[in-house]
């Protein structure tokens, strides 16, 4: 059931081919391919809509058959039947949505806009089916007598909650209102995400050789290649693609150009054709209307019911607790940075938002005698892939074998068979590393098929994809990553392991189908290895000479890991406060100016003076186009968990197999089959505290008194 209700929050795209197949036919039956992977070369844009229409019709018939069943409702004929329904529709959507994010053209975006209301109506038709709801409720009300396993209990609870929190108890006109709101929200969130991608692709910043002071050779070479491709050899074309933007802000010696880039980047989607301000205001209003209709005061009150945090008050307690812990450290960091910048420039300097990356990189370089560009030669992408895959081998015995018989959806995509240390097939992993115009910015993990055990008892293994936007290779140099990009890889790979290692019976509970504030634990846990010498020594070597990364550089990576920790935390908290501000509104009409509203929400953790025309909310796809509405705090929530979890590995050995086995069996394999509080405590042996995070970031000494997560 969960997979049907959440499918609409994902975004995707597609390849075209010359294969002669009638529209939609490729999706008519299970794929006759290796591991039933998608045959991308046979899929056209025109295939999707008819296949989705056909899948919806078939799924509706399956749902109605469950609702009309004359037999008394049971766990098997109602709850399990629901979980197994809609397989034909899922087969289409599990290709359509992952590809829409990674390789979308205008035609596919238009298809997405057309099918979104259809899918919303289909999802709503399930939860508002009175007879179906009666059967689900009957099973739920009789649950004490059913002798269910913990996983079956969770499936029943999740199914019941999916209906109850999606309007199943509504009657008459309220039902139609809910249906209308759901449809409008689906269309608006899709539009929001498409506006972000479309506007990002409009920016072309042309520079000359006089404008390049301080920039690394790699970014200059890439800009030269882009310009030459447009027939303007000798010039340099820069975009606002994330790797380009971040590198420019960090290395450009030109404060005027840094300011220009910053203003362009942070003013996106605030005006013009792709203005998202009215879109996000309408989304916030509709979410509040939906929450009120379902009996909650705010959307956050509604959304947080199935999370570890449970209430807005508990979210704010965590945000405030971290704010208070990190605020003194932030003041110290900014005072040191201002003093350094003033000494460097020979005059008093006020640090603006577009100056932070530049001066902090130089201070980090002075303090630790290196910057990230020095490290790129030791993080050649192929070597990093071996190292990151090797981490899973050491911890969990996994092997990754390139399989060229499985198609990728783009030439950049590589596909791997994943097996365990006994040779048993675990799943398929797709990797997609480089930016392109058809791919949205950022990094994410998704899947083309979730793991589940079918009615015949066959374990259907997952097909998982990780997508990133790393610095591209140039004509004379391979893809060389910064430590930040290596960390991003580790993060998404952690999600992939969560998706690959899952061993559940039901698709709606498998893999990453867990509480939102628990889903980031495996990904952020993986990031801890970036500062572990034993891990770096296993793969980090100069791509030209083969020389291992020097010990002094490893020591500097480790020693500098706490650099800017307070700034990074406060920046993340600012996003959490903005998200909660939008979703704890009890009257959205009171927000006359979304930008002023956002700034007021950020004020308590504001680092720099406000910049006219800049705003976060219009590009905040996580909360207005993704699944993180009233949930962005979960990154910090999970960070507390990941630091606490890794502390156990530090105690026992970072590659200790017994500890890794416990993490695998109690977290990675379990999906959403049990409450995350139970799973985590079973692994850790105790409830988490924020101590490990504060110690890791240098905010607290190891021997200080414990600080529990404050929660009602």
Report on the architecture of this protein.
The protein has 28 helices and 9 strands. The chain has helices at 2-6, 45-67, 75-84, 87-102, 106-127, 130-141, 150-164, 173-200, 217-229, 242-251, 255-266, 277-293, 299-303, 312-345, 356-368, 372-375, 381-396, 483-500, 521-527, 533-536, 551-559, 565-583, 594-602, 621-624, 634-652, 657-668, 676-684, 691-696; strands spanning 205-207, 236-238, 399-402, 414-419, 425-432, 444-449, 452-453, 459-460, 463-467. The strands form 3 sheets. Strands 3-4-5-9-6 form a 5-stranded mixed β-sheet. The chain has a two-stranded antiparallel sheet with strand order 1-2. A hairpin with a 5-residue loop joins strand 7 (452-453) and strand 8. Helix 18 runs antiparallel to helix 19 and helix 26 packs antiparallel against helix 27. The chain starts with a helix and ends in a 16-residue tail after the last helix. Mean pLDDT is 92; it is low at 1-21.
